[in-house]
Amino acid sequence: MTPAQMEARIVRYGDLQPCRTAFIDAHTPGSDQKENFTIIGGGVSESADQHVHIKETPGFNIGAAGQPPKCRNSLHTHRTAEVFFVLKGRWRFFWGRSGTAGEVILQEGDIFNIPTGIFRGFENVGTDYGMIMAVLGGDDAGGGVVWAPQVIQEASAHGLILGDNGVLYDSKQGQLLPEGVQAMPVLNDEQLAQIKEPTVQEVVSHYVARYHDMMALSAKAPCNVIGDQALIKDRPGFEVDFISRNSLDTGLYSSERHEILMVMRGHWRLGWEGGSCVLNPGDTCAVPPGLLHALEPSMSGEASLYRVRNTDDQAGLTKDFS
Predict the structure, then answer these.
(1) Sheet containing 208-209: order of strands
(2) 105-109, 175-179, 199-203, 318-322, range with the lowest pLDDT
(3) With 0-12 CB in 10 A as exposed, 13-18 as middle and 19+ as buried, what is 41?
(4) If I label 187, which of 104, 257, 284, 304 is the partner at 20 to 30 A Cα–Cα?
(5) Would you state the pLDDT for residue 316?
(6) What is the mean pLDDT of residues 177-185?
(7) Structure confidence by residue, pLDDT tens digits, 101-145
(8) Confidence of residue 321 (pLDDT cuts 50, 70, 90)
C-alpha cells in the first residue's frame, strides 16, 4: 500500500466537514448549534447535506458530534449500539423518557457504551467547544434514530418535519413531504412504556469506563474496553481496545479484522510495508485486514488511542436491562 493509498483511509481532525442540519432538532433553541460529522459510513444523519468522509463500512459506523457550551442533543434512541468517547471538553449524558432517569458526567478520554432500549441525550457542560467521537453498530447503523415524541413535536414548531423515509423537510424553506411520504409517526403510549428507565448505578457501573483507569490498565498491554471479557462486557458487533505508550510491541503485526484507530492524545507513527505516517489527536485511520503494520508513539509525553475491530457477533445489538 502506497502512502497516498493509506492517506485516503485517514480522516484528519482538521479536515472534518460538519453538517449543521443533520437532525430534526437542528432549529430547536438549545440544540441549533450542533455540528454532526460522519467519518466512516453514512451514520444516522437525516440530512442530504451530510458529508461522508469514507463510505465503506467495516461492520460499524464512525461519527462525531461537536457542540459549543450549553448546546444539547435531544432525547433519542437507537436500535443498535452507540458508543461515545470524549475527545474534547466535559459532557453530561442523560437518559430516560423525559431525560430525568439518570445522568453521568464524562471527562476527556472517558468512554460510554450507551445500552439500546433507552432514550438518551447529551450536552456540552464545559467552557469551550467540545467534541465526542462515536461508534454506531451495524453497517447501516440500525436504520436511523427514534426520537422522543416531544422532540418531533417541538421541531415542527420550528419548521422541520421528518418523513417516514428518514429524510428531513424544512417547511420554512418551502419544502413539502413528497407524494407517498408521510410524517414520521411518534411512539404511542404502549411503545413508550417499553422504553427502559435504568438507574444511575445500573448504567455507570456497567457501561462507563474512565480514562485514568484505562491508562493504568494499559501500562503493559492493550486494555480491552468493550468485548466479551472486557471492562464493559458486551458484544455489540465490534470490540474496543485502549492503547497507551507501552501497550504495544513495536514490531509489525496484522489482523484478519478491520482495524479503526482513533487517536485520543499524543502523536502516533503508523508504519507498514510501503510507508509510514503520523496520526494526530482526533484523527481516524481505517487499517485494512491483512496489512502488516506497526504502531508506536512518535514523540515523548502522554499518548493514547482507541482501536475498534469488527467481530462476528450480531451487528450492533447491545445487551439491555430486560
Answers:
(1) 52-54, 35-40, 60-67, 130-137, 82-88, 111-114, 208-209
(2) 318-322
(3) buried
(4) 104
(5) 65
(6) 93
(7) 999 999 999 999 998 889 999 999 999 999 999 999 998 866 678
(8) low
State how far the alpha carbon of 229 is from the alpha carbons of 221, 224, 234, 309, in Å.
15, 8, 8, 15
155, 24 in Cβ contact below 8 A? yes
Q: How far apart are CA 137 and CA 43, in angstroms?
A: 9
pLDDT at 288: 96
Assess contact for 17 and 54: CB atoms under 8 A: no
As a whole number of Å, the end-to-end CA separation of the chain is: 47
pLDDT at 17: 97
User: CB neighbours (10 Å) of residue 22?
Assistant: 24
pTM recorded for the entire structure: 0.94
The predicted-structure confidence for 268-278, as pLDDT tens digits, reads as follows: 999 998 899 99
The rounded percent of the chain whose pLDDT value lies above 70 is 97
Nearest to 136 by CA among 213, 63, 223: 63
Of 210, 41, 68, the residue nearest 142 (C-alpha): 41
